[in-house]
Amino acid sequence: MTVLLRGGFVLPLTEGTRPLQADVLISGTRVAEIGAIGTKADETVDVSGCVLMAGLVQTHVHLVQTIFRGLAEDMALLDWLRARVWPLEAALDEASLRASVRLGIAELLLGGTTTILDMGTTHHGDVVAEELIRSGIRARFGQAMMDTGEGVPPGLVETTRASLDASAALVKRWAKAASGRVGYVYAPRFALSCSRGLLEAVTTLSKMNGLLVHTHSNENVDERTAVQNATGRTPIGYLVDVGIASERTIVAHGVHLDDQEIEMLRATRTSIAHCPSSNLKLGSGIAQVARLRSAKITVGIGADGAACNNSLDGFAEVRLATLLARVVSGLGTLSAVDALGMATHEGARMLQLADEVGTLEVGKRADIVVLDLARLDGPAGDAVTRVVFGGGSRAVRDVLVDGEFLVRNGALTKMDAAEVRAKAAEQLGPLLERAHLA
Ligand SMILES: [Zn+2]
User: Fold this and answer.
1) pLDDT of 348-404, one tens digit each?
2) How far is the CA of 213 from the centre of ligand 1 (A)?
3) Residue 251 CA, ligand 1 centroid: distance in Å
4) Which of 5, 54, 185, 203 allows an S-S link to 212, with CB 3.0 to 4.6 Å?
């Protein structure tokens, strides 16, 4: 099967390649040719007036929390977790969790995100996997691990053994699923919900199985202090001690880091997922992204969950990332194109997918977003500026993953958006009752 996207404006987002007017030929799951293409394809799609770029890579999301949108307002991190998010996660059954995951995937695809790293919750990892595979999105996902912690409801806390066994079963089933499009990662939630033994076991297992690790750290001042009180180390110092800090690990947030911790992240090649909206909304703070990048730390972008954002719009996170850096570190420290790079090729690098996705070039997977610039109003300005500052998600017309259209002319091809929303709405009442929040 070949698809020819004809007449678009291509943003390769590769180093040293300038945007160009070109056709893109997709053969099977990969980009076969970029340029003036005369040959015929099985299907030709007119993309004139559109920008073509690699799909966004979001390196920190919580699909299971999509249904919690609007239910956890005006609280700081630890209260937000204990009073709302954890009780709600504990109350998710298979049907409500599935509905939440589908709602999240639908929103991500419609907004131009083609790859995600998901944290999950402590149960129903199989359901998350099934829906990721069914949807066509590219994903690395984990089942959150929690074997301790103040305020963790009984429905979420597990024994260390049970947590490790559950992950082992998920590794067996999903380590490399859907021809590698979906894969498993270890997801110890954060230092305050994981015993030292659990974290050390994850280090050993992730090395042994060659799998990534996804966790949260240095998000908020109180959490930072609590980790220091519990471990006698700074949060990153502790992650170094237990072996989690490594090139296999993606740490969400990294807002409150001291100089030594930044040096530790650099030395261990640990990467950071920057979640600007979430950090602002929970009043956590602003990550020093430009500083981290100049220390050669890989930084990606994530919307985090709908319970703390409340949108999953990757382009909005890109916009906010560059805006914040201008104020925090100065104009020119994180340009629009650099921020877009964080949400594409840098994210891909963190997920060890840089050979496959993150740029639009020959040989890579055909994970492509087609943006109709006419929807952004006003013809002036270069394509990157228009997309980043103009609200890129509004312009998303088509989205392909592995050469398959998952969004076409603004509509999902494998899901019925209205049905997905209705199913989620149906689940909400019973969920709130089970969580005793009704
Ligand atoms: Zn998170």
Assistant:
1) 999 999 999 999 999 999 999 999 999 988 777 899 999 999 999 999 999 999 999
2) 14
3) 10
4) 185
pLDDT tens-place string over residues 23-81: 999 999 999 999 999 989 999 999 999 999 999 999 999 999 999 999 999 999 999 99
Mean pLDDT calculated for residue range 418-431: 97
Compute the mean pLDDT over every residue in the chain, rounded to the nearest whole number.
Answer: 97
Q: What is the three-state SS of the chain?
A: CEEEEEEEEECCCCCCCCCEEEEEEEECCEEEEEECCCCCCCEEEECCCEEEEECEEEEEECHHHHHHCCCCCCCCHHHHHHHHHHHHHHHCCHHHHHHHHHHHHHHHHHCCEEEEEECCCCCCHHHHHHHHHHHCCEEEECCEECCCCCCCCCCCCCCHHHHHHHHHHHHHHHCEEHHHCEEECEEECEHHHCCHHHHHHHHHHHHHHCCCEEEEECCCHHHHHHHHHHHCCCHHHHHHHCCCCCCCEEEEECCCCCHHHHHHHHHHCCEEEECHHHHHHCCCCCCCHHHHHHCCCCEEECCECCCCCCCCCHHHHHHHHHHHHHHHCCCCCCCHHHHHHHHHHHHHHHCCCCCCCCCCCCCCECCEEEEEHHHHCCCCCCHHHHHHHCCHHHHEEEEEECCEEEEECCEECCCCHHHHHHHHHHHHHHHHHHCCCC
**C-alpha 312 to ligand 1 mean position (Å):** 12
Residue 99's pLDDT is what?
A: 98
**Distance from Cα 306 to the centre of ligand 1, integer Å:** 10
Hey, what are 201's tokens? 């076991």
CA of 214 relative to ligand 1 center, distance in Å: 10
Strands 113-118 and 138-141, by their bridges, are parallel
| Ligand 1 centre distance from Cα of residue 317 (Å) | 14
Walk me through the domains of the chain, giving residue ranges and CATH numbers.
2-54+360-412 (2.30.40.10), 56-350 (3.20.20.140)
In the structure, ligand 1 is a single-atom ion and the residues with CB under 5 Å from it are 304
